[in-house]
Structures
1.
Amino acid sequence: MSLELKGITKSFGSLLANDSIDLSVGDGEILAILGENGAGKSTLMNIVYGLLQPDAGEIRVNGQLVSINEPSDALAAGIGMVHQHFMLIPVFTVLENIVLGHEATSKLGKLDLTSARAKLLALAKDFGFVIDPDALVESLPVGVQQRVEILKALMYDAKVLILDEPTAVLTPQETDELLEVIRRLRTQGTSIIFISHKLREVKAIANRISVIRRGKVVGSAEPSASQEELASLMVGRPVNLAPDKTPHTIGEVILHVKDLTISDATGRALVKDVSFDVRGGEVLAIAGVQGNGQSELAQSIINLEPHVVGSMTLEGRELVGMSVHQSLHEGIAFIPESRELDGLISSFSIADNLILDTHREKPYAKGITLSPREVFAEAEVKAKEFDIRAQSIKDPASSLSGGNKQKVVLARELSRPVKLLVASQPTRGLDVGSIEFVHERILAERDAGRAVLLFSTELDEVLALADRIAVMYAGKILAIVDSGVTREKLGLLMAGVVE
Amino acid sequence: MKKFLDRVLGTALLPALSFVMAFVISGFVIAFSDSKVLKLASSPGKFITTALSTVGNAYLALFQGSVYDPNLAHGHGFLQGLYPLSETVVTATPLILTGLAVALAFQSGLFNIGAQGQFIFGAVAASYVGFHFTFTPVLHVALALIAGVLSAAIWGGIVGILKARTGAHEVIVTIMMNYIAGFFILWILKTTTFLRHGRIDPIAPEVNPSAQLPHLAGNNFRLHAGILIALAAAYFVWWLLNRTTIGFRFRAVGANAAAAKTAGISVGYVTIATMALCGALAGLGGAVHVLGSEYALTADIAGNFGFDAITVALLGRAKPLGTVFAALLFGALRTGGRTMQSNTTTPLDIVLVIQALIVLFIAAPTLVRYIFRIKNLKTQEALASKGWNG
């Protein structure tokens, strides 16, 4: 089945999210749509799936004009979608999730799952999936949950499958398996639209690549194009994908973590007996698939976690038991995992966000009164130094783009005397330009002799920045390896496999 | 200056439109609940004119009872005609203070339902210091006020400590503590210390003249210095929130507790400090009410000041200046409502309908936006619900 989009235009207020976009995917073809966050990929796909209505443009299926007003129209037209965030009910079984919205009932209104079960098993067999229809979704690994989503689309005869950032939550191994599944779907005649900003995957899977920038299709490329070519097409200027890393001079141990165990409120251990050192002038990356205890470990370093046992010393001074304020002022800069939730107060001005940590100190405070003039003056200086692009530093932080938000966090955290930089997923959701900036700042801290502890789920980021890599799995550090490690070995470790 | 006006207009527009809507709808309620009007339902012309005159009379009485009454001015001069306005201010004074107690909590992300109990503690302590001791006038007033403020600050602070240390939700805790305070005042009015000599009904002795707040406009008016204290408190709250490091922390925790915590701000400290300060404000309200207009403590001293405070703070968008205006409005409705009830066939309860409708429209800005076709109406939808998430 072929799907054709012509002149799709959609604006939100003054923002033109889609500007007369033309795209087509043919029978049994994999079209990759590459674009940065905010380029308009999701808007486009939500239009195709009927979640949004376009201002102009048409959608054709097999040459026939179709009107898609809601997802059920899309499904009827043979278009299925797997969202980035799964639309599954965790406490339902696989089968119950799959029939959701299409429940067959017996005469008396009793749920009848027999035919659905047979169809599901047949379908899974066709595609070589091993799946237990009666397993609770919450008990399944993320990769399998995603397969449930795909099966759900196929159950209702999707001939065009849209996959929105499908690898964001997967381990490298799961990603490889997913790519394999996608290839198999193609050979069976399903057309695929694969949305991603990850160059490697796009190159590996696509038949054709279309690049979207600021709501427009800016070009198309063959999978044989180099990553640099694709990146510059996506960003609109030459891009340096591998930050320049100078050989480092290792200093003394700055952070020493010994037998650290972190539990949740019910006493379940989330991080178990973790020990490691970070030295001045090196980047230690903690790699791992999301949800293996990294978030808690990162938070515990500035004492945001309440239930911590063990020891953590910064240049010999015990950190465990300090308040957050004390920990930060011991010389830790902390880039939290979620800048929207933990990094910034979006309703506060940029200037106020820059003094969240130091508002009690001179020159911002005189006694208990704040002096706005000093706050603004300092903010101007920092905005310049960290290239924060805003109309005014008095604007609320919510008016900033993701990259500029992260620059505000960086500017605040690196303005205190720093011995250790803890950066948790520092480039998540950022555009390529901002990623470059953040990477440069992180390496600059390392080159200035500070210790850097980087938490990242992005393999590329880990390999580009780290001097040593610790892999976390199920709350434990499985191994600490050199940065020369192969992607394959790292991928296996992230999946919990130690040879 | 223009920017400032824009801002004030921007924030005042929704309350103002809600106010208008509430009066329009209440007009219908007045008309359709009036037996005289309903009898004329068969003749549309008379029906409409009678309905209009009934509503007009009711609102005229409301105005005359709360702002200016020409009948009172007749033969006594213009100023005497403003007597209703002075009564409005007297009623609004404690309401400003309890309203601030709720508004300040909102700013820190807390929902203080406990202004009623805090008010009671302030009133009891101020009354005790007022009737039990004798000092020189200014000192006596000051000591009585301080006693009210401190005891209510402790009462409110307990809520903060419970929340910060155990995670108990402030809404539940303050509601429960209102009950305790309510029964506490019933009990204490039966003790020999508080029971007025020669009386068996629950009423405490009048506070000594040295502890009474001075009148501002002579003895013909009840207007007392409490309004100055209330306005000073409103300015203090504004200054605290916008010009101090403490207020910065309050607002940071209120706007995003997770980010505040990550930046090293102690959320527990803010919670305790906020609740203690809110208690202090409501307690000051109780003290001012006793020392300025009631003089004698009764079981019903708190009236509805603590609960109306929530509405007042919402109407004032949790801003100090807004709270002052909202409290004055409520004071006017209350005072004018009494005149309306005695001079027309419209009952005092219609005032409750107006108040409820104002809040309803404020809580549903989309509705107001739709009715008036305003696109960029500034709203604070989160305000009413934010405290609950804490």
Note: Chain B is about 75% helix and 0% strand.
2.
Amino acid sequence: MAKLAGLNRKNKWPYLFITPYFLFYAVFSLFPIVFTLYLSFTDWDLFGNRNFIGLDNYKQLFFNDKFFWKSMFNVILFIACYLPALVLIGMLLASLIESKLIKRKTFFRLSFFSAYMTTPVAIGIIFALLFDWQGGFVNNLFIELGWISEKINWLGDSTSARWIVIMMVFWKNLGYFLMFYSAGMASIDNSVYEAAQIDGASPKDVFLRITIPLLKPINLFLIVTTIIGGLQMVEEPMLLYSGWASGTSMVGGPDGSVFTPIWYMFDASFNGSSFKYGKGAAIAYSTFLFIALFSLVGMKWLNRDGDSK
Amino acid sequence: MMKKTRTKKTAGVMLSVMISLVLVLSACSSGNNKPAEPGAGNNGESSNAAENGNLVIWGWDKSNHDTLMVEFNKNHPNVKVEYVEVSAKDYLKKIQTSLASGSDLPDIIFAEAAQRGAIYALNVMEDIGAAPYSFDSSLLLDFEIPLLSNSKGQLVALDTQVSPGALAYKRDLAKQYLGTDDSDTISAMFTDWDAFLAKGKEVYDKSGGKVTMFASLMDAYTIFINQQTTPLVEGTTINKEVVTNLFTQLQKVRDLNNEGKLSMWSPSWSASYSQSNVIFYPAANWSPQFVIKPNDKSSDGNWGLAVPPLGGFSYGGTSMGIWKDSKQKEAAWTYLKGTYGSEEGAEISFASSKAILPLKASFEDTSKLLSGADSFFGGMDVNQFWIEKVFPSIKAVPVTKYDQDIYTASEIALQTMAQDSKFDAVTAVQKWTEELQKNHSELELK
């Protein structure tokens, strides 16, 4: 009876309403997160090993595994190439679309954004077909146009493979950046621009001294989320080299040039016949550490004037 | 004080709900019932269990299996099969994720050629050479035993058919560039691979670079790797000499222009079957049905089969075993033996899909196994070719859990070798070893 009286109290409802979320969070998020951390301290594979080995997986990754560092280098290189391009071109295109020069704004916004709606799987396969060595559209087109005499193995060369991945991600995300910048620009009060024009500011000054500073919160969000997404990249390069179009799968691309940490995690745990779940978990947690580090650095850098808005 | 009590009560309610949820979820997972042992109980029960069951099988060739079951059910009407289609490519992943999560595996487990070693090493299959199955491995063709045994030497699977490998060739190109399209003459023409590759260079030069012996380095690799008599990996040691010889041979294939720089299994590789730029392809007895005819539909009489230098090899094929925790082991054994492990199985396999089982008894009277003249192959009796020309020279090495990753590492090394003329055998061995050691740090090159 005392318990029932307790349950009837007014404050039970908020607890009851939020309980399902916490239960699902505990079972489907918290438990896997903690269990993965535990796994990263073990040598669990499916061949009978499941021993606690402390930090051995991490020591191996950080001090003896060139594949891990190469995969980390690759994603950082990709981010360093496509992120500035996305910010710059995204902002310029958005200001062009939002300017008085463009009439059919919705059409252009949708045109760019449609690429973002395409699934990474489809993008990977489309680019694999486009750049296939023997039967690819790009090689056939260039030969028809007389630009090349021999077909180029775009996906077989480490440099061109990296550029193709950068191009894929840039092409896909440009619409996403553009939408954010368009929305941000639309939200800037017109009176600010009018005041600048009355004071004699040139269009360049308006862009550099009004638009860009006022878009800072949007830039902060886009840059941090793109860094997180970039470090987690896997679908695009994996599908490009899945063998769907080329017939031959190639883990990591030529000379590991497009290998990414999450691909490595998948490769160690599920792809081949090593089933190294402990190592895969350690790669996942190490990637998380890098994501946290880069996100923090990105936020600090963008907020270096002390303005956290 | 009141506040503390209330908090405790709320925490108690939440804890109870969580425990209930955990218990419900636990109940959803697989049970821990002890699997049934074949032969357990009295004879009546045993016989009953052997002839009654609804087995779960994961596989990728349902149509052929359905035909086989029609024949099998004539003798065992109450052994039914629920066939769950799983692609060959995803099979190992499905097995491992089920195993890691503690879910049930199928009663009958498939193992495709490259995945055999890994699946056997997972220790999920019954030793069918031991009691109560006691299958006599001497009934099998000798080269089959290492392909069906795990690293402990236990026989854990049976093959669904023999998979002999040889060379398929285009007769018009062979006549033009080799001077003959006769199978026996071509088989006798090349005493070793050096002679074959030297001829390949002549063909390339004579055709102005348009015609090559093979479509890709992986085509040549497929033959070389399956002709090995010493395993590439023994225990945790990579045999440096064997791997170096393999890649040296492949470098020769590239340097002497014996390959067409296509990617094996790619659309352009498939299209080359109906074009006039490649003479030879590795072919197994399943290749005509699944590879050659679908890729060269309009052809009639332009294909032939020949024995490669150093003889035939085992190419592909699928084996099957019984899940060690199956609750229907007796029915599973009735199925496995009745389809692939007995004369009864040999008869119904041949009757349903012309598949030949690797049982010595099947070869006592080979006249029953002939397939007749095949106009697609210029009137050859294809089965006669496999039985008389290829089987006598087949050898096989033990499967290992590294086989699939060896294949992947080789694909990567050969892709680079095909396009980079400076990428030689020594570099290939180094890259190949690094790739293999990436997830198998226990391996050592010696």
Note: Chain B has two domains: 52-162+317-364, 164-315+382-445.
3.
Amino acid sequence: MKKHNLVSRLELTNITKQYPGCLANDNISLTLMPGEIHALLGENGAGKSTLVKTIYGVVAPDKGDIIWNGKEVSIKSPSIARDLGIGMVFQHFSLFETLTVSQNIELCLSKTQLNEIGDLAERITHLSAEYGLNVKPSRYVHSLSIGERQRVEIMRCLVQSVKLLILDEPTSVLTPQEVSGLFGVLRTLSNEGCSILFISHKLHEVTEICHKATILRGGKVVDTCIPQRETPASIAKMMVGDLAEQDAGYTKKEGTVGVFNVEDLSLAAKQPFGTTLKNLNFELKSGEILGIAGVAGNGQDELMAIISGEDERSVKNSLSLDGSDISDLNAGERRKLGMAYVPEERLGRGAVPDMSLTENTLLTHSQGFIRNGLVDWQSIKGYTSELITKYKVKCHGEFSEAKSLSGGNLQKFIMGREIGQNPKVLICAHPTWGVDVGAALAIHQALLELRDKGAAILLISEDIDELFLLADRMAAVCDGYLSPVVKTETTNIDQIGQWMAGTFIKNTSASDKQEATA
Amino acid sequence: MDSDLIVQILFAAVKTGTPLLFIALGEVICEKSGVLNLGQEGMMLMGAVVGFLAAYGTGSAGLGVLAAMIMGCIMSLIFAVLVLHLGANQVATGLALTIFGTGLSAFIGSGVVGQTIQGFQPIAIPLLSDIPFLGRILFSHDILVYTSFAMTFILMFVIYKTRIGLTLTAVGENPHAANAIGIKVLRVRYLAVMFGGVMAGISGAYMSLVYTPMWVENMTAGRGWIALALVVFASWRIGRIMLGAYLFGIASIMHLVLQGLGWSISPNLLAMLPYVATVIVMVIISADKFKEKLLAPRSLGKTFDPRQMA
């Protein structure tokens, strides 16, 4: 990219946005050239989302100028942004589930655009083939997987021939294969001159695909770099400010006694697009972390639901804690026996959105805070604010409503709350999903500390790096089957990756058949 | 039962079903945008009394309908400002609107109770009304009945075939996403609520100008509530609303028919039929979680405040 003979695609100067109690963007300036893939990095609450929403016209800045292709513009609404050629793929997708792909896309287009396109379905099919997106226009969005939905969002931008595509943590919901597919699309777009603004937490992805990076901290630009010349560790350092050990290489431990057992667990899918669990067997020992890898939607949610007791169907003798069958107990009774959970969905399952953090603490933490049937608000408040300080949860205080926290901060709070109960068995899904580097480190250490105290931890995650970092033993799920469980030191990413793709299944079903005939 | 009686019953079903059709069409549009307006009964009563007063004063039933439409619109605007602008709870505000409308209509109509006027006269449509059976059942009515036919087909076209319908569905389905792609959610909702008010006004006018051309306190007798049930019964589909309106119409005149046949069943028991039917439909829909998800507007009854988007 030769800057001197090109007009910049987008130039931001001194963008400032003040929210009550927080300066989200503080004099942010940024330049993007045509075809440039630019990473926007920073911890949760650093102001990345606010900044991209300003560019997309969702948030009005208090101060600062936006220069688009050399001309100063005022982007007052997303429709103005789209008319300029700015498209955005949101972290939480903005699709309408009861409408078809083509209807969803149509809603974003103006009448003139529609007339230009003519047959929208044909155009979608054409673009889909051109970029390898594999999006069928007539399908209903509710029947699509997360990765497919994201491709619909990208398609929505492509149909309008975008000049700047903004992606808010696009890879956090994708499988490794989907990620490489996405990167292929982004590279093609970049070659065609489309600029891309890319928000991510995954630093190796940034070094892999981005041409430039701007690092935000506390609403300010603290650094810029060319990611290809950096390492994930050096970028992480810029993000958190102090030295964060990215790959600390924690010591692996061997569990002592079996605490929690899953035996011959088979369970039909409850949801129309759910996964049927097929004859799962594993033992969770105290003092170990057992990691379960897998691409989303291969039975993790179902496994989590049956272990936590959220799925109320009981499979006799399939689950046992300390040798006694717990499959008839409900979620509350299991918690009383010393089990704790961190579900994938933070708002709605991990926390009640409209309730304060204090009340949310009380929900899973009733022992000790209720005396003679009365709630001891004083001590629960104190405890909650301790959690907030310990896990650096960014919020107004222990009275903040759960829904007012950003995803990563709420995750920190929920992890802290569950770990704080000193559970015998902790089941957690995606513990650091959407959490920034600094906080992820804190969560990792808290998990290891809990393990060293003798707790048995089941870690379900899509982040393979994290599993290799934390888990003492590992397995993978695919299509409701569980692979063999092996020690982390004795396996490698290749093998786990193959298991995630289901290479072990043939053997399993073959042995099933043998058992059946025997 | 001879064929003449059947024709008469079906003719009466269309007539009793028409006010339900008007108000339910208004409510379904309102609900499709994600707003639940429980003030139907109040808006309808205000439409009925104002329509009657205007027709009584001017001698023109047409002006009566116009006045009723304006009144219905004003009532719905009060609701819209409270719910959409000030973020009040939809259920509580809707109930308050009904109570308010019931009381106010009785107050302003007290002077004309028992007075009668010349309402709309039936117009037999040439040719169509000569069709055996159907002609007498469908095409020998007054102008408002024909308007309700036309409204149904216009709405079916608008909702299922146009961009406007797509936008409305999108807003009711996911207002946050709609806002993010630049749809003015509150504006869509304002318009939908006001449309509901206008339709409730016409429905009220139908009661006091055609059905029984007079004003009696609380003359709508719960039709606003039946309409709410009807929308659920029809699972938010326009065509089914028309069908349901006439079915509910038959149910509400059933006691007269049965009496004519010499059976005696308490009319109160028969008056329950629309509600029983609605409950049964609800159970059937809910049995399939997935289907239910596809039918009811997802954001129904939930407040949306674009200022909270950050």
Note: Chain A is about 35% helix and 25% strand.
